[in-house]
Amino acid sequence: MNSRCALVSKIIPFSCVDGPGSRLALFLQGCNLRCKNCHNPWTMGRCNDCGECVPQCPHQALSLREGKVVWQAEVCQQCDTCLHLCPQQSTPMAQVMSVEQVIEQISKVAPFIEGITVSGGEATTQLPFVCALFQQIKQTSGLEHLTCLVDSNGELPISGWEKLRTMCDGVMVDLKCWDNERHLALTGRGNTRIKQSLHWLAQRGMLSELRLLVIPEQTDYLQEATALSAFIAELGDIPVRLNAFHAHGVYGEAKTWRSAGPQDIEALSQALRAGGITRLIPPALYL
Length: 287
Prior knowledge:
Layout: E1 5-15, E2 23-28, E3 62-65, E4 68-71, H1 81-85, E5 95-98, H2 99-109, E6 115-119, H3 127-139, E7 147-152, H4 158-164, E8 170-174, H5 180-187, H6 192-203, E9 207-214, H7 225-235, E10 240-244, H8 262-274, E11 280-281
Parallel strand pairs: 2-6, 6-7, 7-8, 8-9, 9-10, 10-11
Antiparallel strand pairs: 1-2, 1-5, 3-4
């Protein structure tokens, strides 16, 4: 796959939850974290054409051709049977798309949106494509007004952020836990590089939003509120979005975890405010 193509999980033409205003949200396949609480675990891996999903499809939308799993969109009923069966945490519905094909989709809705957000999975695992896409948007007549944002877990090295710097209008980053060991247990990786990314992006005016997902009894924001508040203060005047975990739709042990309610969010809000952090965005809803 060349730098002008990417494996795309989904495109949502109009989204109001993936950055400011109405945006086209482009979800790329593949992630370098393995979060236990992930609501879209089938975006983590990549199909290896093992074919296990093919005979299980109740609508015969999948077939094996020359050793490749082929998805027929016109037959698919979106029952998600294949997603739950996949041993690779992938989806046979992901499609290889070129920059030109994505630009075509963006152009159709450009008059009605304020920008695009590239998410995942983890968008930066396909960094050359993201750079090429953003550069093309900036150079295409009729798309110049669109802002280009990345929704990221922050695992990209600084050298990668440097490549995005000239064509990216902002990055929204999740900090899954404060303590490195707790972060490792929850996601499969530590958070040292993520904290480095947050500092680097903030210092260059590229950090649009810090996101904290509150998972009762799992995340440590409240216990580490003093250190967390000091860290956020170092980032500058950055919006902090508080998201509430809900167990509906997750898999594995996370299905047994308690969903976050207003009382959990308010407790963290009070602790952060006590540490001088005031630009807090509460959840839009609780499930």
